[in-house]
């Protein structure tokens, strides 16, 4: 292949991309939303994979240890990969490290009221550019629906599971959920 020729074919392409991007002001935001969704997808898939493996190896009580150890690690790994802050939060916490900030709390409350009005939890998400002094961030949240599988540790728990949770999380609030409830949300902060 002739290198001269490929240089000449690339130049108009680069220009075309530049024009296309600047012509659509919303493009950047759409990209950020898509990239956030895909980071969340990786987070959810990794967590679910490890939790299922934990269940198979050590039953629900063993899986509690997996969630406890791996959930924060996976969040840290994805944050390092993307350069964003990626995590999970909720209005009723198990791990106090996951506490929402003021902005996240308001969005979680909004998700709960939209859910109560009939929107399925799986459809709830929100993005916003938040300016605070000199700092401008793109923030994204996506609700986490409570599935049947989650009720083992977030529904009406008893027995060994209850004991393990009481020991590890003395202030646990994250029980009593029903299928379809908003359990919490994935949350992403991208500095702009
Ligand atoms: C085997 C028990 C177990 C199962 C099953 C389980 N979780 Fe959890 N969950 C935990 C533990 C333990 C934590 C605390 C993790 C930590 O310390 O960061 C947690 C934390 C969370 C959090 C973070 C917010 C908080 O309260 O700290 C969310 C959100 C969450 N779980 C959602 C789910 C969803 C959705 C499912 C079902 C797909 C699920 N969990 C299934 C044990 C479980």
UniProtKB/TrEMBL annotation:
Pfam family, one: Tll0287-like
Keywords: Signal
Domain Tll0287-like: 41-189
N-terminal signal peptide: 1-25
Source organism, top-level taxon: Bacteria
Record's protein name: Glutamate synthase
Species in which this protein is naturally found: Thioalkalivibrio paradoxus ARh 1
